[in-house]
Design brief:
Number of helices: 1
Shape: extended
Distance between the termini: 89 Å
Oligomer: single chain
Radius of gyration: 36 Å
Helix content: under 10%
Strand order of the largest sheet: 31-38-36-33-34
Strand content: 35-45%
């Protein structure tokens, strides 16, 4: 009946033109893996951070939401087994800060942990226990001085805290502590008393109450580190448990129903027998995943997997008992899963960033069936790339689900920006998978485009009409991008130019280039030139001679024109590592200049506060820039200035105060202790002041020429702690 109602709703929206669902996802009214019996409606309006399953099958959720399926529930809610909100459960007043996790507690209660200090109208710091109806249990009060730690609830109601700590409330409970059912610290539980250091990364409780811990534990600095311990329910070390000493056991633990122990990290999975000895029957050949779980049939779930055995996967992959992939569980490349909870019947509760599953709306929470009764088809990846010089592109189709029957699926190609018969050969067909056959390849012929200069083009291929006993899941379509071989205009030939750093187009279509070159087409051009529209050198345009910038790190000298910008009036601003142009016209050191449209030096250009630029301890390297309509210059690069004590590689240069045209820097050097010393020559009768800055906004005087000496020296000890230092000369007022 539920399915019939859903079909009626979908038919309405298809007819109305509002939304179209592809029938490729559905066969005989059954989705591949989504459990349609679990329907959370519109779901929460914020992300779920924690989820727990209660003994009666109801589901506790916590996170950053304010309502769930339109019903007011702030950060905490409980769902019925069918996904609807349990109206009998409410925590009010809500927590005053985020809830990070929620755990099922014996007797239908729940333990919540987060940043809150008030919850349910009571003062509770980080931890609180909720009653069966969601109200705060006043009998549980952990006080105010417990740190936020990972938690595990024992079957007797006591709570294990674990992490990197050495004591709690004065007790030496290094790495692991236990709270009584009222929230007080259990002083009888001190498993690491006398240990030099202990740090627990994960902890699980076995059915008999025994505790397995992984981390780093050492009784004394002289002893080797132990990475795994087995404790009795009272915290005593179990001498019968002997874990291998030659392996680091990683970050996580999981118990399989048969009692075997999984140890996992992003680079490994191992399995131990209940006595701690290594189980060599588990063979995982490509362990790249984040977390492992164990389901009710002793199979293993890899959570947040991206590939397995070099094959792309979605966020969930299931392995058989020995580590081989279980193809009866295949959700395609479905992404966005953050939380996985395994129900006793093997169904999977998932939460994350998704908004639909197999084309059906499911906002942030859903439930998956534990296996597929039908074969499942999808592409190995949603995108393929090829070149027009390749004769064909090969797309891989994957078959999951039950492996023993013969099944088939149809496919067809469709134009996007590429055109069938011109860029590729259209295909429509059907592929068949025999028993235990997992992969098939569709080969599409690529045609060579007779014309060059076109952009890359795409076409799509879609799976459709699966045969009896089969369904299609995502990705059901794949896009093929054909990269054109010729992306350039063959009539434009600038020849070989050594390392171009900047390009700027003039209004007349001619192109200004700057870089490390010293000639173009065999004609001498030092670091800057102008090209005609066909790429040939414009011989009528000559730039001035730019002088190199001393590195101050040795005897090497640097010359680099990193930025060339054309102003609306046709004049050209250049920036880079140079001391000046035509030497007699520009003083040392410089780094900025402006050229007239014909390439000659614009001697009237005054770059404002950049006059006398010096960037210690290295030369400035400019990566790009722009000129605003108001004439202000924006520059970016590797000069690493600091603005309001924050490093920046992007700055806008204002016009600044009037600068001196009758004074110049003659020499600047960096002492071994970081002090900048320089010599300045003055002409005229005006007093001058030399100022230093790190951000072009805040300027500090370092020398004032009140005696009107023609040649003066200054020292700036304040440059020692700066990444860059800039200097200017202006009239003294």
């Amino acid at each position: 009946m539920v399915w019939e109602k859903l079909c009626a709703i979908w038919l309405y929206v298809v007819i109305s033109g509002c939304l179209v669902f592809s029938s490729a996802f559905l066969v005989n009214g059954q989705p591949a893996f989504l459990d349609i019996g679990f329907d959370p409606g519109n779901g929460p309006d914020g992300k779920i951070r924690g989820m727990a399953l209660q003994a009666d099958g109801k589901i506790l959720v916590a996170g950053g939401f304010t309502n769930f399926a339109g019903i007011v529930r702030r950060q905490i809610a409980r769902l019925n087994t069918n996904g609807t909100v349990d109206l009998t459960y409410s925590c009010h007043p809500e927590p005053n800060a985020p809830v990070k996790s929620i755990l099922a507690y014996p007797g239908g209660k729940a333990l919540v942990e987060g940043d809150f200090t008030e919850i349910g109208g009571l003062h509770r710091v980080y931890y609180a226990r909720l009653n069966r109806d969601g109200s705060v249990d006043p009998s549980f009060d952990p006080g105010e001085d417990l740190p936020q730690l990972a938690t595990v609830v024992q079957s007797d109601g006591k709570i294990l805290l674990y992490g990197n700590f050495q004591s709690i409330r004065g007790l030496p409970v290094s790495g692991v502590a236990r709270l009584n059912s009222d929230g007080t610290v259990d002083a009888s539980f001190q498993p690491f008393l006398g240990f030099a250091s202990s740090q627990a990364s994960d902890l699980v409780v076995q059915p008999d109450g025994a505790i397995i811990i992984t981390g780093a534990f050492r009784r004394s600095n002289a002893e080797p580190v132990q990475y795994m311990l087995h404790l009795t329910s009272e915290g005593a070390k179990d001498p019968s448990f002997h874990a291998p000493s030659d392996t680091y056991f990683g970050d996580g633990l999981a118990l399989q129903p048969n009692g075997r122990i999984l140890l996992y990290s992003p680079s490994m999975i191992e399995r131990l027998f209940p006595d701690g000895s290594r189980d060599s029957s588990l063979d995982i050949s490509y362990p790249y995943y984040a977390v492992a779980f164990s389901d009710y049939a002793n199979r293993i779930l890899l959570w947040k997997a991206t590939e397995y055995d070099s094959f792309p996967t979605g966020d969930l992959v299931r392995l058989d008992f020995n580590g081989s992939r279980d193809w009866s569980f295949d959700i395609g490349l479905f992404r966005g899963i953050d939380i996985v909870t395994v129900q006793p019947d093997g169904k999977l509760l998932i939460a994350g960033d998704f908004t639909e599953v197999e084309g059906i709306p499911r906002r942030f929470v859903a439930r998956l069936l534990e296996y597929s009764e039908k074969a499942v088809f999808h592409f190995a990846t949603p995108a393929y790339e090829t070149s027009e010089t390749n004769s064909q592109v090969r797309l891989q189709v994957v078959r999951g689900g039950p492996p023993d029957n013969t099944v088939s699926v149809a496919f067809h190609t469709a134009d996007d920006t590429a055109t069938a018969g011109y860029d590729y050969v259209a295909q429509t067909g059907r592929i068949e998978f025999g028993p235990r056959e997992r992969f098939q390849t569709i080969a599409i012929s690529i045609l060579r485009d007779p014309l060059g200069g076109e952009a890359d083009e795409d076409f799509t291929i879609a799976l459709e009409n699966p045969g009896p006993g089969a369904v299609i899941t995502s990705p059901a379509t794949a896009k093929v991008s054909i990269h054109e071989d010729e992306h350039y205009d063959s009539t434009f030939d600038p020849g070989a130019i050594d390392r171009i750093l900047s390009l700027s187009l003039q209004p007349d279509g001619k192109l200004l280039v700057s870089g490390l070159f010293t000639n173009i087409h065999g004609v001498p051009r030092s670091h800057i030139a102008r090209l005609n529209s066909d790429g040939s050198l414009d011989p009528s345009w000559h730039a001035p001679t730019f002088w190199p910038y001393p590195s101050f790190l040795g005897c090497d000298y640097i010359l680099s024109l990193d930025v060339v910008l054309v102003q609306p009036d046709g004049r050209i601003v250049v920036a880079g590592a140079f001391t000046g142009a035509n030497r007699s016209d520009y003083a040392y050191p410089r780094g900025f200049a402006r050229l007239n449209p014909d390439g000659s030096l614009d001697t009237a250009f005054d770059p404002g506060p950049m006059y006398g630029l010096y960037a210690a301890p290295n030369w400035p390297l400019f990566a790009g820039g722009a000129i605003q309509p108001d004439g202000k210059l924006i520059l970016g690069g590797a000069f690493i200035m600091r603005v309001e004590n924050e490093p920046t590689n992007l700055v806008r240069l204002p016009a600044g105060p009037p600068l001196v045209t009758e004074a110049r820097f003659e020499q600047i050097a960096v002492e071994t202790n970081g002090t900048v010393k320089g010599t300045v020559s003055f002409e005229g009768s005006q007093y001058y002041v030399i100022e230093a800055s790190t951000d072009f906004r805040h300027w500090l005087p370092v020398y004032t020429n009140i005696d009107q000496q023609r040649l003066s020296s200054f020292a700036d000890a304040g440059a020692m702690s700066r990444l860059r230092r800039f200097y200017r000369i202006r009239p003294w007022e």
